[in-house]
Design a protein that fits this description.
With 444 residues, the protein is α/β, with parallel strands linked by helices. Helices cover 48% and strands 7% of the residues. The chain has 4 domains: 29-166, Rossmann fold; 172-252, Helicase, Ruva Protein, domain 3, CATH 1.10.8.60; 256-343, Zinc Finger, Delta Prime, domain 3 (Up-down Bundle); 349-438, DNA polymerase III clamp loader subunits, C-terminal domain (post-AAA+ oligomerization domain-like). Helix 4 links the parallel strand 2 (81-86) and strand 3. Helix 10 (197-207) packs antiparallel against helix 11, helix 13 (256-268) runs antiparallel to helix 14 (272-284) and helix 15 packs parallel to helix 17.
Length: 444
Amino acid sequence: MFNDEGLFSAAAPLAARMRPSSVDEIVGQTGLLVEGSPLRELARTNADPSKASRISVILWGPPGTGKTTIAQVIARSSGRKFVELSAITAGVKEVREVMTAAARDREIYGSSTLLFLDEIHRFSKAQQDALLPGVEGGWVTLIAATTENPSFSVISPLLSRSLLLTLESLSQQDIETLIDRAASAAHGLAGAFSLSDEARNQIVLMADGDARRALTVLDAAAGHASAVESSTIGLDDVSAAMDRALVRYDRQGDQHYDVISAFIKSVRGSDADAAIHYLARMLEAGEDPRFIARRLIILAAEDIGLADPQALTIANAAADAVAMIGMPEGRIPLAEATIYLALAAKSNSAYNAINAAIADVQSGLSGPIPKPLRSSNFAGAKSQGAGIGYLYPHDDARSVVEQTYLSGKTANRRYYLPKEVGAERPLVERWQKLRDIIRAKKTK
């Protein structure tokens, strides 16, 4: 798994080629890698597997801080068998298969297995439960990575059996060290280019503490410099390569903002095929399914609204289903909700109504509350006129009465303007009739 034709081959991206092969080569996270630290102990080679550290670790930190790198280095340095699973694609079945193989290898060969689980926060409770026997029995050393607070996304039994370590974004000096090392290393750019100070500073700025992003931008800038036959990577090369580099890096989020925007606009535009395509792109890129579910709930209320009130119920049900069953099965209710919302009748009347009302309130357009509507549940209320004259709508055969609900500058404001689409169509006539009764408008 760690041979010259694999991870560190010249065909691999620069960020992959520059992964450290020992703990001492790791840049950043110095506080977690000092001598005697748990990570150092895990990385220590031990001829007797029974004496090797088997503590499980949860690494919590932002992207590009070295979570995968640390796991690979520990496996490489300690001689453990390295198995990697992604919470995006692995289910309970895959986890149990790893546990069974690890227990067998330990019993027959005396070997130790390190399981690296990326994005553990995407695992459901059932999937995380499947990890417990192997962790408790010492069949595997678990290193799990997450970008979300484990206190909310990792089950308590697993948290109590693991050491939680927090990784920090790399400093500017750390990023500069990585860039200079990649530019000169034989398995990096091998000194083929010099790097201007302006280009280095721009890459550091763009990286924002993310090692993978820095190396991806450097790789793309080197490609541009080579294409124009320059031996110096300058600011122009970084600028020219920036879009390409960010797209390559952004496979982790698959152009997060552009794709979610296209997804929302496709549902709003009633194109079910396009909506499903963008849903698939987000899921394959590892987008948080809970984020997608939240967007569907907002879509159902904002763009469909009263034209099909069932849409909000379906969106909420999809969100509940994703939270309950996790991925990859969660893709199915998300797809169902996406298609339903795309094909539903559309109305943004509720969205427009609340925005218009808020705009009036923010601008100071608020009349006094009519006295009949005020609370009379306190001493002296009636002496102030509160509640006096209120007409109880249910006393009328129509369950609606002539009554002042808004006063002053807001008395004649119209916020809800229903549309003649879908289930909202009957509300156009009904709302007009109700308004006429409430405001005592004479109909001819």
